[in-house]
Amino acid sequence: MSQAQESPFKSFIIALWPDYDRQGVLVILTGEIENDKLPLRIKTLIPASADIVLGSGQEGGTSELLPLNETRDEKGRFVDEVFVKSQFQIEFYYNPFQFQDKRESNYTFKLNQLLKNYHVAIQIPLGSENFIFSESDIDSVKDDHGLKYIRKRFNYLPENSSQTFSFSYIKKDERLTVDILQEMLDLMPPKDLDVNENVLSVERYKLPSHEPYLILIFVTVAISIVLFLSEKDFVKEPEKNENNYCSKCGEKIEYNNNFCSNCGKQLI
To answer: What is the residue extent of each domain of the chain?
Structure first.
């Protein structure tokens, strides 16, 4: 396949959030599709153990994150969906971690479309040590609260080709990034929690479980702007919608519910 062939995407980001708001890894695939390539079928590999996959921008969807179509065959488990809006998002959780200090994972990415000039980004968990990423020549940024992101840009990935990203780190307790960050923010003087309304006007998704931590949104917005908006790319935060879905059975859940009414799963 010639690299002269055009990609249907203006931008594409693979974002990994280990131990963010629940144990495991949150994967967010997001970007922008060229208008003249719409509608676009996206078929991407997901881990066999992944929870229900949610997305936005798909055919028949709304602005909310809704369950996406899946297929399975001898090659694995796939999201297989037609997207009709230029801005799209696919997200899911998987948990490769055992109850031990050393956390490690391999995430294999595979897509049915050609990619050019795409990024992979990882938010390094707060409270972790000795974080190791399989890629070299990476960019990184860190804010005053200790949130650190690393990113690497790739030039080309042929359609239906696999790319595996590996990472590992040491984490000696079960606290999540949002828990540690909230503890840190609780110790800050009130004046330091002032949120610039102009910054918050940037359209972002809300945090999935610990709403309404507006300052958390501000921090992540600021980091994302530094990392991605300079190249007109961005990572959206995971969302907690008023009409979300249980990650175990897919049942629609109401905003304030702590348990799924269908299967009884506790909602973090």
So the answer is: 9-254
